[in-house]
Amino acid sequence: MDCSSRKGKSWRHGKLRGCGYRATVGRDAVLDVLSQADEHLSAEDIYMKIHPIHPGIGLTSIYRTLGILVNIGMVHKFDFGHGRARYELAEHPGGRGHHHHLVCTGCGRVIDYTDFIDEEVALLKKTEEGLSKKYNFRIDSHLIQFYGLCDSCNNSKVS
Amino acid sequence: MDCSSRKGKSWRHGKLRGCGYRATVGRDAVLDVLSQADEHLSAEDIYMKIHPIHPGIGLTSIYRTLGILVNIGMVHKFDFGHGRARYELAEHPGGRGHHHHLVCTGCGRVIDYTDFIDEEVALLKKTEEGLSKKYNFRIDSHLIQFYGLCDSCNNSKVS
DNA sequence: GTTTATGCAAACTGTTTGCATTGCT
DNA sequence: AGCAATGCAAACAGTTTGCATAAAC
Known about the structure:
2 copies of one chain form a homodimer.
Chain A: H1 11-18, H2 25-36, E1 41-42, H3 43-50, H4 59-71, E2 75-78, E3 86-89, E4 100-104, E5 110-113, H5 117-135, E6 138-149, H6 151-155
Parallel strand pairs in A: 4-6
Antiparallel strand pairs in A: 1-3, 2-3, 4-5
Helix pairs in contact in A: 2-3, 3-4
The structure holds a DNA duplex.
C-alpha cells in the first residue's frame, strides 16, 4: 500500500491518516520506540519499552499497530527463525540505514551489515526489473540474509 | 554440521548414520516426500503425504526428523510469513535446482525463480567472503526473497 | 455523534516436550 | 542387550479475536 501523505515534522501522522487510520498515542509510541531502536525488536520488546511510559497500552495494540505499519510499508517484519517476529522501521533501499542481515544459527545473534550493500542493491534492482516483467509481479521489498556461526559460537564449538 | 558420508544410491542413510543418527522408516519417508515435492512443504503437508502410506508415523516425528535434517544441512527451512515453516531439500548454491523466492504478500503464493541466479550467486559468494572475514562469521547458507503482489493479486486489487 | 481503536481475557495455531513403548543396530 | 526413535497427550509460545468500553475525528 502506498497512501499519499505530505512529509514534514509529523509526517507519520500524515501517512497514517492518508491510509485511513487514526493517529493515536499508542501508534505514536510504537513508532517512537522503533525509530529510537538500534536493533530489531519483537512485539514484546516494544511493549516493554512502552509500558513504563504508557502503562495503559497493551500488547494487543502493539500487535495491531505493527500489523498496520507493516501493511502500509512503514515497518518491515522479519523472522530470524527464533519463534518471534522482529520489526524495524523501513528504510529505502540504497538510502542511509539500509542493510542486510547476518544471522547466527548458534546463538541467534543478528548482525546488520552494510558492506557490499550498493552492489547488492544494484543487482537486486536489476533482478527485480527482470522478475517483475517475467512474472508480472509488483515487487515491494526484498530480504537478504546469511546464516552461519558467529565468532563466539564458532570458537565454542567442539569439533 | 558436516558429518562425513559416502555418496551412492542410499547416501541419505550414510549421511544420517555419519551424523550419529539412525536410519528409520519415518526419516526415509520424510526424505522421500521432500525429494519428490516440487514445492515447499510444511510439516503438516509432509505428514499428510506420508500418512496414507505409513499411518503409524506421527506429526511429532516429522517435526523431530525435520529438525535433524535441517541441522545436518540436508534440508532448508523457510518462513514465508504465513505462520508455518516450510521445508525443502537442500541444493548446492550454483547447482541445478538452486533458486530463490518471490513471495506474494497478497495470497501467499511462492514462486521459485532461477533467473539471474548465476549473477546473484556470484555476488553472494563475494559478499560471503568479505563478511566472513570482517565479522569472523562462518556462513553456511543464504536466503534471498522478494516480496510483492503476484499477477492475480495485482489485478484483483481495487485502487 | 459516529466511527475507529483499545484492553482484557479467551481462543487459536504451529511446534515442542515428558514419558512409557517400540525398533534399530 | 542397549540405546535411540517414536507416539500420544499435554504443555507451550507467540499471535489473533470477540466484545464491551474509550478515544479520535
